[in-house]
Amino acid sequence: MTTSTATTGRLSAEWFKLTAITVTIFIVSWTIAIGYWRLTRRNPDTGDLALGLLVLPLCMLFALWGAARAINPRAASIPANTAKPAASASTADVATTTPALAIVGSALRSPHGSSAEELACAIADNEARADLDKELVDDYGFPVMTARSDDAQDDMLQDEIADWLSSQGLHVQFSDEQWRALILATGVTAELASQAAGDLMPAEGNPPLLQLRLMLPHDWNIEVRRAAAMWLKHTVSQYGWPETSIAMPPLAAQDASATPAAVLAQLMPSKGESKQLAMIVACASLIGQDSVNQLAARSALFTSSQARGQIPGEGATGLLLTDLRQAQTCGTEFALLGPIKEARRDSSADEARRVDATLLLDLVEQVRKPAAVELNDIAMVVADTAHRPSRVLELMGLSTPAIPQVDAADDIVRIGLGSGSCGAVPFVTVLALARHYALERNAPILCIGNEDPFLRSAALVRLPA
Questions:
Q1: Do 58 and 161 have their domain in common?
Q2: Rounded CA gap, 204 and 167, in Å?
Q3: Could you say which of 198, 365, 397, 424 would form a disulfide bridge with 282 (CB–CB 3.0 to 4.6 Å)?
Q4: CA–CA distance from 366 to each of 199, 269, 338, 347 (Å)?
């Protein structure tokens, strides 16, 4: 009887999932078709109606079905580790000695929330999605899909930044997109600096050294990067942290293309390291006509005829990190981050003919084993995945065979749907949201990065044992 009931439940869940996918595809297809007809002021004839309302969604369904069949044989061949061994002292020792950072605070400025809690609510209500922009258009004059933040426009703050930089002898010309990103990063940095001063500043004596790591857009030139770094360091010092106790790598030594996974791996405490305190801030903005034109020139802009293109987005996210000992004494809720792994594909996912989740599955094994976390303990998967079918199918190819207990509707969160393309920001947002979900569900959260054409990342965020 139990087996029969469980089988019926699984079948019902599969039918519900299939129905939801089908309805979603039809709604998206109809919205695109009707929006196109309205924008072009065209009265569709019978052929147009059949093509837009029936043929287009059916083609999308067949493409999705074909891609799913392509990835299932390889993904299913990797066995899911569903056996949960008995707890032992050695397992506890492994979990304790695995290098990890404590996330004691987070801050974000996203198009759909100014905190992890706000963004989680928007995601739960299915409101964290891109929309047609009122200002930006493509080569044909049609509005483009963007993820725009209301917090990115602040004329008073922009004047304050410009005046301070001028007082330091820096006369840098920022583009509209760079100003938007810097304004968002200022809000995040100020919030984290306030948290650090309130929770981690000692009552007496010198404060510990604060490692400030900035992940600025890789295409910013050295003058813009230097000016932005100086301003954000000054912002931290305004909340009581002495500039002499704020450490930043020299700009010449920083790798402008360093990924969040690489930066966090450098910060992981090693054996014998007593204290670690770090603040990482990522920011970017593609909300500007120049950025839209550049994407369109590379045929990389999302349009009705270029579904694999990118949706311009913007945002800023930051994490306040420390070692376990300091986290336990600071009196605030925290979650552990680590292990974190990254690997590179042999070829671009944009050019691959078949979707293959093997690399992601390998990375998941590399992060869960050192942490002594079983796959069936994972409560959620949070990823930087956006709308592109190859990335979505790759993510589903990871979750379906290996982590069957997560529900596709409620337990798999794709940040990229609401953030758009904005550099390192979506993956850092994944980690900030994972802390929120880990504290809320009291269970490990798996973090995945697969939006980049080549790089794949996996990390665990969990509560301390």
A1: no
A2: 33
A3: 424
A4: 33, 18, 11, 21
